[in-house]
Design a protein that fits this description.
Length: 252
């Protein structure tokens, strides 16, 4: 760590002084023997060994200290990296919050546009529905005028009264009239549609209306007629198979 310096262990002055005192004491007492010098030598050797051990311990401590300094430095570096990542994360979160705010505003504008478009679409559908009904009624009125001629010239049916739209047996029949074929009274029951391309809607509805008429006029022969501007080939064949007269606008 900063401020620490490597130091070597040496025999301190206090230790040296102790050695000198022991020697002086022996000399004063005049009892210096070979054994004393051997003892002194042993003491000095032990002190040297202790010094060696202390030096090794010091080196170990310094090595651990060095490793600790390295670890601390690495931790400091890791801390700096963590702080940098945290800063980037905070920036990202702020950017996401701003993006979410912009998205919410854009969504509000989109919803407002969708509501406006929905309103316009409803108005368009209403207008188209009105136009479709107008065209449908106009086509029916034209059929009332022209269909009797086609029935007479092509199918031998003379109408005795004008076609009308009326409710019979709880069903709205939009083509109904009395006629004569081969001297026999018949009732013409039909549907007038600009376009016929779905069998279920066309034939199913016509059958229900024929049943309603028969409940009101039992025993009378029914002539089923479909008047249209366009009909698919499949429906045309199916109508012929069921004995239904198909009159298309080009025929008049």
């Amino acid at each position: 760590m900063p401020g620490l310096r490597k130091r070597n262990f040496i025999i301190t002055p206090a230790v040296k002084q102790k050695i000198v005192e022991i020697i002086d004491k022996r000399i004063r007492e005049a009892h210096i023997t070979r054994e004393d010098f051997s003892e002194l030598k042993s003491i000095v050797k032990e002190l040297a060994e202790e010094q060696k051990k202390l030096a090794e311990a010091q080196r170990g401590s310094e090595e651990r200290l060095t490793r600790l300094e390295t670890t601390v430095a690495e931790l400091a570096e890791a801390q700096r990296g963590s702080e940098e990542r945290l800063t980037r994360l905070e920036t990202t979160v702020a950017e996401l919050a701003e993006a979410q705010k912009n998205l919410a505003e854009a969504q509000k504008k989109t919803e407002a546009s969708i509501q406006a478009l929905t309103k316009e679409l409803r108005n368009t559908r209403r207008d188209l529905g009105g136009l479709s009904r107008t065209l449908g009624y106009g086509f029916e009125n034209e059929a009332y005028r022209m269909v009797p001629k086609v029935l007479r010239e092509k199918y031998g049916i003379d109408m005795r009264e004008r076609f009308v739209r009326m409710e019979i047996g709880g069903k709205e029949v939009n083509l109904f009239g009395r006629g004569v074929r081969d001297g026999k009274e018949v009732l013409v029951v039909g549907e007038v549609k600009l376009r016929m391309d779905r069998a279920r809607d066309v034939f199913g509805d016509l059958d229900k209306k024929v049943s309603a008429v028969l409940s009101e006029y039992p025993g009378v022969e029914i002539v089923k007629v479909l008047v249209t501007h366009y009909i698919t080939g499949g429906l045309l064949r199916k109508a012929e198979e069921q004995g239904i007269i198909i009159i298309q606008s080009y025929e008049w």
